[in-house]
Amino acid sequence: MASPVKAKKHLGQHFLTDLNIAQKIVNALPQDDLAILEIGPGTGVLTQYMIEKDNFTAFDIDTESIEFLKQKYPQYQDKIHFQDFLEADLRPFAGKGNFKVIGNFPYNISTQIMFRVLEHRADVSALVGMFQKEVAVRIAEKPGSKAYGILSVLLQAFYKIEYLFTVSEHVFNPPPKVKSAVIRLTRNTTDTLNCDEELFFKVVKASFNQRRKTVRNSVKVLSGNNAVESVYLDKRAEQLSVADFVELTNAIELAIKK
Fold this sequence. Notes:
Elements: E1 15-16, H1 19-27, E2 35-39, E3 56-60, H2 63-72, E4 80-82, E5 99-104, H3 110-119, E6 124-132, H4 133-140, H5 150-156, E7 159-167, E8 172-173, E9 180-187, H6 197-209, H7 215-218, H8 242-256
Parallel strand pairs: 2-3, 2-5, 3-4, 5-6
Antiparallel strand pairs: 1-8, 6-9, 7-9
Helix pairs in contact: 6-8
């Protein structure tokens, strides 16, 4: 099925054309009454299954896509917005409670989308999205893997991550050069971590920025070169779980206060 909207290469956008996969993605979103925010609807292959819902909104920064969708759904024009998810004020979309996010995300901003979700983790109850397979694996990966990284730890601290299925490159227009995958994030019960969360984020990022070295070398600058006492110092970042990073953060905070 050819796309009626020309793909924008600078957006990294590849439009899904397989309706069976589109339906599977939408069905993977938790079936509740929370508001739904779609990012980058493109030609509306996912949108068509959700646009009649009272609590649905779509964001896109591709003017051709916006124009196409508004012509296709003239009665729902108020649900389709020329807006950048990375910059928009998301609070109104929480309504009386939280909201869910869905999308076939542009590959080149998918990581930024995830950090934006982290910023609004108190409001985003779930996310189902299509990613480049490599990124999806990284987000869902467990400790001990080379794919396990910053996003794995930060997202898994607040969300249950499920790798749902792999998607062939041949069901997109234009076809990407890599395979894609769909994952689901569901908010866990962690409201706050048992540590300084700002420092936790810094510790995780610093640890993986020098992932070939042990954590001891990576976190020196954070402790002001004060001695840190932790069983995790001689491990590499990829070996540490979320709980381990919480303990390490507390140890570094103690060292800072010395």
